[in-house]
Amino acid sequence: MKIGPPARHVRVEEVDGDLVLFDTEHHQVFELNPTASDVWRLATGEFDEGEIVELLARAYGVAPEAIAADVGHVLTEFRERGLFEAPAP
Amino acid sequence: MTRRTVERTYEIVGVPIRVTADDDAVEPLLDRVCGDLDPSSDDPVVTISIRSEGEGYRVWVDDTVRSDLLAFDQSFMKAMSLLHEQTMEHCALWAVHAGVVSRGGSVLAMPGKSGTGKSTLVAACVAAGWGYVSDEALAFDDDTMEVVAYPKPIWIDRRATRLVGVPQESLAVTPSRYKYPVTPADLGGVVARGPLRLRAVVVPERTPDTAGPELVPMRRAELVTVLLRHTFKRTREPETKFERAVAVARRIDGYRLSFSTTKDAVEILDGVLS
């Protein structure tokens, strides 16, 4: 399943390379650490979770298994907080 | 017994507010607690009144009663709470809940929850020579970063007053036996005047097990969250506030300070603005 794209009610700002998300519906702010920022940048609706892990592992020069759990955790957080567009019915 | 009406109008972070009472016993308390606020000759935007009623007192905001029937000291504390509430309600500046001190016109703000030792830290900074800006709110224009002092007293408990060296006789006039209003003068300090510019935000955290104080730079993304979390009226125009918080975070430095003793914390804060 493709991940993303970001929900329309989420505003994004980049500050010193880190992303800050603002949920305009619930008035909540999320500051993302560097890894979570990279995950968010790839959550465009173009890639599935495995592809995101692969892309990041290549960029970081590590084995996919080394980051898969962290990426999965971040994606779960994003989903649970309603930061992605709802999948089409 | 004849009671004289007491009336004072203050300008607090640009907001003219009047406090009145129909009992002149309020006067020494008011002069103690609000003595560092600027007087105002403008028409007030709101009036807070302490009115006697039978055996007690009620507190009003304009024509609206805002308290139960209270004892005298309680009514005064309620009035001070409403004074702050109304100041924030009408303040056109961006206001962040924080202790605020300055040095050489540069301002350091310490946002934090109650119980983090923020007020004691502010008092200790003032005793160490920092200018006093506020123990309540960082009020500033985020275009110019100019800060306006909000010098209500620092409310600390008896133990903290001893820790920061407040002469105990200064505590005689108080509406509370739990927390005492301490002024910069009690600490041998002064209210910061003149142009003040916001330079840094430090989030203090008292951690009894820490060996020594530790000052860690904060990511600017984290600073955005800190600013918004402690902003008064943050649910009004939230998107605008988000944009403004991002802009401010790009212009100032942020730190986390963990400390176990106030004295150590003050020493390490000296380096933040240098």
Structure description:
The complex is a heterodimer of chains A (89) and B (274). Chain A has 3 helices and 3 strands; from the N terminus they run βββααα. Chain A is an alpha+beta fold and 89 residues long. Chain A has a single domain (10-80), classed as Coenzyme PQQ synthesis protein D (PqqD) (Arc Repressor Mutant, subunit A, Orthogonal Bundle). Chain A has a 3-stranded antiparallel β-sheet, covered by helices on one side. The mean pLDDT of chain A is 93. Chain B is α+β, with helices and mostly antiparallel strands. Chain B folds into 2 domains: 6-90, no CATH class; 94-269, Rossmann fold. Helices cover 27% and strands 32% of the residues of chain B. Chain B contains 7 helices and 16 strands. In chain B, the strands form 3 sheets. In chain B, strands 7, 8, 9, 10, 11, 14, 15 and 16 form an 8-stranded mixed β-sheet that branches. In chain B, helix 3 (118-127) packs across helix 7 (262-269) and helix 5 (220-229) packs across helix 6. Chain B is globular and about 55 Å long. The relative contact order of chain B is 0.14.
Structure in a nutshell:
The complex is a heterodimer of chains A (89) and B (274). Chain A is an alpha+beta fold and 89 residues long.
What is the topology?
The complex is a heterodimer of chains A (89) and B (274).
Chain A (H helix, E strand, L loop, with lengths): L9 E6 L2 E6 L4 E4 L2 H9 L6 H12 L3 H17 L9
Antiparallel strand pairs in A: 1-2, 2-3
Chain B lengths: L5 E7 L2 E7 L4 H8 L4 E2 L6 E8 L2 E6 L2 E2 L6 H19 L3 E10 L2 E6 L6 H10 L3 E4 L2 E5 L4 E3 L5 E3 L1 H6 L16 E3 L14 E10 L7 E4 L2 H10 L8 H12 L3 E7 L2 H8 L5
How helix-rich are the residues of chain A, as a percent range? 40-55%
Biggest sheet details of chain A: 3 strands, antiparallel
The CATH class label of chain A is: Mainly Alpha
Query: How would you name the CATH homologous superfamily of chain A?
Result: Coenzyme PQQ synthesis protein D (PqqD)
What CATH architecture label of chain A applies?
A: Orthogonal Bundle
Largest interface: A-B, 15 and 18 residues
CATH topology of chain A: Arc Repressor Mutant, subunit A
Number of strands of chain A: 3
The strands making up the biggest β-sheet of chain A line up spatially as: 1-2-3
Q: Structural class given helices, strands, pairing of chain A?
A: alpha+beta
Q: What is the tally of beta strands of chain B?
A: 16
Shape of chain B: globular
Q: What is the CA-based Rg of chain B, rounded?
A: 19 Å
Distance between the termini of chain B: 58 Å
Give the averaged pLDDT of chain B, no decimals.
93
| Structural class designation of chain B | alpha+beta
What is the correct CATH architecture of the largest domain in chain B? 3-Layer(aba) Sandwich
Helix content of chain B: 25-40%
Cα radius of gyration of chain A in angstroms: 13 Å
Largest sheet geometry of chain B: 8 strands, mixed
What's the total helix number of chain B? Answer: 7
